[in-house]
């Protein structure tokens, strides 16, 4: 049992160790230059195509949801006549 406990301790120490992790390149200065550049593009679209797609999808969902809410309000305010 003691051997199992020591083995578990050794495995836990290996997984927590930061020595085996690879270093990630710091891209913050590049991103700062990109977002601070004065090129007439709004800051929420400066990230590229992915930002433009997210923006357009959000706008479509917003407009569609607003139209659907107005439609449902109109249907609720004019109930069907019962014969």
UniProtKB/TrEMBL annotation:
The chain crosses the membrane at residues 53-71. Pfam families: COX7a. GO terms for molecular function: oxidoreductase activity. One of its GO terms (cellular component) is mitochondrial inner membrane. The keyword Acetylation applies. One of its GO terms (biological process) is regulation of oxidative phosphorylation. SUPFAM superfamilies: Mitochondrial cytochrome c oxidase subunit VIIa (SSF81419). Pathway: Energy metabolism; oxidative phosphorylation. Its main location: mitochondrion. Signal peptide: none annotated. It comes from the Eukaryota. Belongs to the cytochrome c oxidase VIIa family. PANTHER family: CYTOCHROME C OXIDASE POLYPEPTIDE 7A (PTHR10510), CYTOCHROME C OXIDASE SUBUNIT 7A2, MITOCHONDRIAL (PTHR10510:SF15). This is Cytochrome c oxidase subunit 7A2, mitochondrial. It comes from Acinonyx jubatus (Cheetah). The lineage of its organism: Eukaryota, Metazoa, Chordata, Craniata, Vertebrata. The gene is LOC106980214.
